Amino acid sequence: MLLAAHRATARTRTGNWPHRRTVGCQFPPFDEDGSPDVWGVQHMMHPALGESVFAEWYTSEALLQTVCELMGCGKDELQMELFNMLINPERADFALRWHRDDIHESATADEEREALAKWQYGVQWNAALLGDTCLFVVPDSHTMPRTPEQRTHSSTLDPPKDPMDMPGAIRVTLKPGETVFYNSNILHCATYTHTTPRLTLHACIGCTRGGSTRARNILQHGLAWMEDEKFRDTLNDTGKEMLERLVKMKNDTGDVGYSLQN
Ligand SMILES: O=C(O)CCC(=O)C(=O)O
Ligand SMILES: [Fe+2]
What we know:
The chain has 8 helices and 10 strands. It has 262 residues and is of the alpha+beta class. The protein has a single domain (2-252), classed as q2cbj1_9rhob like domain (Jelly Rolls, Sandwich). The strands form 2 sheets. The protein has a 6-stranded antiparallel beta sheet. It has a 4-stranded antiparallel beta sheet with strand order 4-9-6-7, with no helix packed on it. The protein is globular, with a radius of gyration of 17 Å. 2-oxoglutaric acid (AKG) is lined by residues 86, 96, 101, 126, 134-135, 188, 190. This is Phytanoyl-CoA dioxygenase. Pfam families: PhyH. Residues 142-164 are annotated as: Disordered.
């Protein structure tokens, strides 16, 4: 897995893998032709990347069992979603502002409460292959709207000078091999130092009980390639079933747009 992650990173840094997150662009749509400096590799299970270990891990029994336990859902309800990798930029530091992945910063407290109430049908995780201290979160903020002070700190499109200025913030420290599972609408931000190596698998899985609630957040990443037979053929039976549930959600929703602005 580590070797495959290094290979994918090298390919992305040299411009040989076009699906990437470039410095200067915080959220989808990622400008694939933007800065040559990259902070993320997109679509780790894409057959053209040629690294089968990622799909094997994403559909592995141990991982899916954990996801089922956290969501309180059955294996037959799991929906395939995103699998990307977050890496350190090489030329300049970069950061993401405080945000919830699928709730706009301008949302009122009532809108936040409503959006958070229906966001229990998915789980996201960061699995660090190297040590990782990039992520900051406000624990419990996935259960309640922002306080007025937290709102002030998260209503700008600019990343914070110091993430610890956010009331309630903690820094998430992962040792190599550790994974943190979280609700992607928890209030969070991240800072990337170009001199500190990062190789962190970043993925999520949904539960079909959520219907189309997760459609915008997931489909905004551009997942047409997942409907290609070539991808389906690489998956084990569980993976094929998870993929079918994603395709159904895609077919059940129209144009989804984007969650946040750059
Ligand atoms: O770098 C991270 O760990 C967080 C990334 C993130 O928040 C995002 O991609 O929306
Ligand atoms: Fe995020």
